[in-house]
Amino acid sequence: MFDCTGYASHAVDKPLSPLHFERRDPGPDDVQIDILYCGVCHSDLHMARNEWGVSTFPVVPGHEIVGRVSKVGANVTKFREGDLAGVGCMVDSCKSCASCQEGLEQYCEVAFTGTYNDPDKKTPGLRTYGGYSKAVVVDQSFVLRIPANLELAAVAPLLCAGITTYSPLRHWKVGPGTKVGVVGLGGLGHMAVKLAHAMGADVTLFTTSAGKVEDGKRLGAHHVVISKDADAMAGQASSFDLIIDAVGSAHDINAYLVLLKREATLVQVGAPEKPLDVAVFNLILARRNFAGSVIGGIAETQEMLDFCGEHGITADIEMIRMDQINEAYERMLKSDVKYRFVIDMATLEPASAA
Ligand code: NAP
Ligand code: ZN
To answer: What is the pLDDT of residues 65-91, one digit of tens each?
Structure first.
């Protein structure tokens, strides 16, 4: 075991603050990574404040990790010391259920091990702590290769926001000729816009923020609709093949279900703490689908990173210091993120931890 420094949520109503904790030493199949940058996902905020009722404190959030390999175990073939590497939302899974066998570890029937807030299966008694920290140790099969041509800090958000939107776009076979809607221009939403555009779809952004219209277009949306404008919404009725809803708080889902064509799908990736009200006739009368999707498998995450490398796609980021995280959370709650905060881990000094 070794001592690691990070930033943790210690209770629902307390700001995040420094924490010293222990990580396992790398085993034969493990890669140890010095963390350079970590993206700030809204899920980190949900977990830091126990909004989903599953947090075990202290929680060290962070599952959009990029860094440099500092140690490798004896069996590690995929990485060498000094390589760039990425880690997303999962660090392990059962590896034997049908989903894992199909490369869909995110749907592991036993449950995948989250990058934070889960028991560390490899070391009884230890828990997983995330990327708001100096280093992480991960089984090589859950470590991703980073395309060399992309700006490293702006790659970090691809590890969650990127794959969470790429996976449903691929699953529902988005391409030229498909009309895709994206709800909410935050971390996930802005990646959905960029990726759907790169896949050749006709992309419409739905935003509550009038100030994001120009950005939406710059990021790749062909059309932008202010979702508070009832007439503009009515003009979109029954026209979409796929809508990705990336809103993580209470909102009217029915306003979007009626925008789907017959048999089309609204996929919920945003994860509000309270149930959403579905007016079932919006589904019944046009055989529409209301679906969900969680991140993506490891092979698909690598495919997404390679796709982003080929198309020159990264997140639009605002770099912050580790000690600005609490302020960043408050701004995220006000939809004031352009369009992902990324923590420069060089600003987390080991000496600053209590
Ligand atoms: P984010 O950066 O905070 O973006 C959310 C966006 O939703 C906001 O920027 C805003 O965009 C819109 N919005 C916020 N409140 C709204 C409201 N009351 N009504 C309508 N729109 C609203 O969050 P994120 O990191 O993208 O995450 C979004 C959600 O996805 C979170 O719940 C997160 O936990 C979840 N998530 C799920 C997965 C998965 O695997 N399914 C993975 C990662 C994250 P506009 O200003 O454009 O309206
Ligand atoms: Zn996330």
So the answer is: 999 999 999 999 999 999 999 999 999
For the chain, list the strands marked E by DSSP.
Answer: 2-8, 17-23, 30-39, 65-72, 84-87, 90-92, 113-114, 135-139, 179-183, 202-207, 223-226, 240-245, 260-268, 289-292, 317-320, 340-344
Task: Kindly state the helix (H) or strand (E) to which residue 300 belongs, with its residue range.
Answer: helix 298-311
Ligand 1 atom, smallest distance to 292 CA: 41
Ligand 1 pocket, Cβ-based, cut-off 6 angstroms? 41-43, 46, 160-161, 164, 184-189, 207-209, 212, 246-249, 251, 269-271, 293-295, 332, 335, 337
Collapsed DSSP state (helix, strand, coil) of residue 346: helix
CA of residue 206 to ligand 1 center, whole Å: 12
Alpha-carbon gap, residue 311 to 199, rounded angstroms:
10
CB of 291 closer than 8 Å to CB of 316: no
Given a cut of 60, is residue 233 above it in pLDDT?
A: yes
Whether 284 shows a pLDDT value over 50: the answer reads: yes
- Determine the pLDDT at residue 351: 54
**In the chain, what's the furthest Cα-to-Cα distance?**
63
* Residue whose entry in the numeric block shows the structure tokens 């001592």: 3
- CA-wise closest residue to 320 among 346, 354, 291: 346
* CA-based nearest residue to 266, from 180, 196, 203: 180
Return the ligand 1 atom nearest residue 205 CA: 47
